[in-house]
Amino acid sequence: MVANIGFGSLFITFIVSMYGMGAVLYGRGTRNVAWVESARYAMSLTFPLLTVSVVSLVYLLVTNHYEVAFVSQVTSRSMPFYLKVTALWGGQSGSLLFWSWSLAAFATAVTIRKWDRDRAFLPWVILVVLITLAFFLFLSVFFENPFTRYWQTPVGIVRSFARPDGAVPFVPRDGRGLNPLLRHPGMIIHPPMLYLGFVSFVIPYAFAVAALVSGRTDDRWIRLTRRWTLWAWLFLSLGLILGAWWAYDVLGWGGYWGWDPVEIAALMPWLTGTAFLHSVITQEKKGMFKQWNMVLIILTFDLVIFGTFLTRSGVLSSVHAFAQSPIGPLFFVFIATTFSASLGLLLYRWDDLRSENELHSFFSREALFLLNNLLFIGVFITSFWGVLFPLVSEIVTGQKVTVGPPFYERATAPLFAGLLLLMGIAPLSAWTYSSLKKWGRMIWKPFLASSLTIPAVLYLGIRRWEAILGFWLVGFVLAITLYEFWKGVKARRKRHQESGLAALWNLAKANQRRYGGYIVHIGVVLMALGIIGIEMFQVETQGTIPEGGSLSLAGYTLTYEDLATFDTNDGRNVARAVVRVSKNGVNVTDLYPRRDFFYDANQQMTIPGVRSTLAGDLYVILVDWREISASGATFKVYYNPLVKWLWLGSLVFVCGVVVAAWPQKEPEHLRRYAPKPTKV
Amino acid sequence: MKRILIWAGLAVLLTILAVGLMRAQQGPVKVGQKAPDFSLRTFSGEIYHLQELEGKVVLVNFWASWCESCKPEARDLEQAWRDLQSRGDVVFLGVDYVDTEPEAMAYLEQFDITYPNGPDIGTEISQSYRIRGVPETYIIDRSGVIHHRQIGPFHSLEHVKSVLEPLLGP
Amino acid sequence: MRKDIYHLSWIIMGLVFWALMNPLPGFAQEPTPPDDEVNEIAKQLYCPVCENTPLDACGTVACEQWRGVIREKLSQGWTEQEIKDYFVEQYGDRVLAEPPKRGFNWLAYIVPPAAFLIGAYVLYRGFVTWKARDRDLPPDSEKDLEDRPDIDPEYISRVNEELRKR
After folding, report:
1. A625: closest CA among C47, C151, C155, B12?
2. Which residue of A4, A158, A586, B125 is 20 to 30 Å from C109, comparing CA positions?
């Protein structure tokens, strides 16, 4: 009954979206505003309708309705309540429904805003959003229906939505339960965050297309969507960071990023999105790069669709899975069509998007933004090619190859280093004109300060030139950015007689985007610190020891003290080891790596015991494919220097974006750049 | 001029992706297609070429020692082989997929398998048959065309024989 | 007689003791390579069956067997390269972490730097063209405003302040 309501609502939403698309086109065609308004109402209906669907599905998940196939696949009786709710995105059909629901939410939010000044955009924004929504609803209705049920027929058990003739519902006694790997806090918020990030990029894209179609190719569409873009970028960044945290905490190989095709598929829109974020600032300030910004947002949109496909089910899969799945061709057609159509529109309006200004100096901020874009696109092309190459190789040579971390790391490390350098230099340059002399004047103090990192690093015994350079870059960017803050606070205090903290607060408030951006850069640089630590200086060891035995790594001694095996009340069998950590004979802490076996899913996973300090993480896992007992257990131990800075840096990063994106009153009449002086 | 280049480039990229996608969607080799030729060097050193076996009924079974579901059908396959061997016009070939020799030999010994088995060096054979996993079995008729494709293990000895029966004749 | 047996047994025990302490060459037992040595190689290889899983982190029975192969080859004295070559020969190119540099695979390594260089070149050309055109125009737009007596100086200073704030 509830399943019928849920599917019914889903189907109605699909019809409503199709109606909206038709109404908009008809309204534009006949220049009848009433039809466009009708389409707008239709779009705002999609969210409440889909909410009914989502609530129905969650209800079925939470009340153990195992005759619904999806419920059987992702829940089980032993799972706690909150996990049953989050299982909504624990499988393909549920996550596609969630995606559509998020898009509907944003679509409704967009329709509610005041449209008086932007009537030209409205029909096209509606059209683009509804086309995308209709596509995903089409997939949900016809291919990945979360409400299909099991029926007992004379022939056997059948799975379908509608009841076959003469069949009765088949209700399994229990479900299979969520994949154990997904029963982790990181994995609970990571998919929704990532999908929110993906979905929210649809809005700026819709406005971009609207700008192209309507001919309003000035920066209006960018200013309208500036906050959308920032929040979209925040969600996407958070999604990636949470995914990395999950990988570090759960997957048990002591790392946070494996350059897996699924990870890369989520990274690519982030790369083009970050390039876009920076580049649109230039369009707003100087009316430049309009054509390029269009390319970037179109790319980001199609990469978002591609990324959604690859990450649907939330568990690591591969590009081969993409290619072999039945909805692969549908996604391919959608991406190819939208990309070609957008490109066509862009070429149609190419000349209207000519820059209003020109580049006057290699050292100007515009030039640096161009360089920033070059580097981000460089990383993007490397990633895209690396993901595509195994497929290409298989077609051309018949040989399967793997493109793994060494390939990506070698190619992207210099590009990321270049981006770090740019983060340091960018605050120094001014719009339109800058020069080495100007930079020199602003840079020498922080540069001196940052050069202190070199003797410090050498003193610690570090000799790898990549690490020395990396640490210096971190110091350099920190020095310059903090110096900017200091200068700003000093100037404010002089003028307004404010206290230090008040000056800082008001400084940021007066120029949210700039200082928010600086905080984001500081966050990134701290993350880079963590990455350099773990990537270049990680050490590991593995050994099988009996109770009482010990392993040593990085100056620590780890002793296997005890093992406890017990069943929990949420359907797990836990084997928990007690590992005592000591250094130079002094006990530091006890760690509890454990192996959880999930009875319902018949799968197990390991949770590491981690001792985390700013200097580094001591990370111990029980190797669960070997015997775990008192007479012998195998432990794998990693020492990951500085990795905590990766997570701390992400927190700073998030704060920075919030500062930059926080709503503020914008004086609309101020133009952002001086008009070009006319020749007299 | 530039526009033509852009569209041409896009067309090329999309064609490559489309072709790749169609290839990937193909799935394993289908019934009715000509069986891809291969040479198999057994653990005992003999070499079999599929093409040279034309005229006989060939059963090609992909297995691995680490494959749990291969084990139930191993005995059935061996028994079927023993029953049909004397005819002389049936050949059973076991292709060991991505395995290690000591474990493979132990597996063969455990199930007392007497028909020829060899490792799939470089995964060439499994790639040409585009198998998705193990066990998979392909029954090839006398003219080299695939007659039956078994994804997953056979249910029983009768199942194996029933699939071979139509091809055997008197 | 009994004294002889007594002495003999001591000699035999001494010999046995000596033999145990000094194993003869050729009968020497190679120590089993520790997990760390195996993982050192395993982490450079990828599981031939599971997608994108490095061999040291893979928990399947098959992967344990492959690590066993590495261990065995190490104890027989094979070098790292020899072991990797063996895996490639047995299981194909996909066990390596990146495509081996031969033939068609060169394309994998050439495209990213080539694309970057092309992008850099396009930017460079853009800069040069813009800079060239720029020579015809009056420099420094800020100064220009200040040179215009017909514009209210208060307005100019406010504009400059706005510009500086951004």
Report:
1. C47
2. B125
